[in-house]
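Shipment paperwork, digital attachment
Item: protein structure file
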Amino acid sequence: MEQSNGPIQQPLHAASADPAFIPGITGATIAPAPGEDPAETGVSEDAETGAPEDAAEEAPEDAVADTAAPAGGPVFEAADRRGRIVADAEGVRLSFDEEACEFRWDEIAAVESEKGRFGKRFTVTVHTPDRRWYPIEIIAPDRGGIAVWETELDAVLDAYFDDAS
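Attachment content:
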């Protein structure tokens, strides 16, 4: 007869054990275990070979153009030494240190911005339909920069975000 010496441990939910499970977050990819199908685990083919995804797509610096946004549409970009926010026709991309997440416009329920009351802090929060939110705080070079950022972000949201969905 087996006897339990401690509390019964329930298996962890995938979201609590794997940060890549949360939609929109791109974390470190881990190669699947032998015998697992990469399509089922959500691991890219490049992670299997160990090669970085963008290593095959490197181009000379002279030929690299700003392909992040299509020409003609409004683009919002704000960055400080640790964080970066980019909003364009593709969607919204947030990055802080080594962490990054991307949201297409159809994955976004709301985007809110807030400026600090006394300082130079600008916070953008992306809300998803499944009631998750992803805030990022950027420090502006000066207080006037926050007003410019708010205007640029509003122009991008007016152009691309459809709140009727």
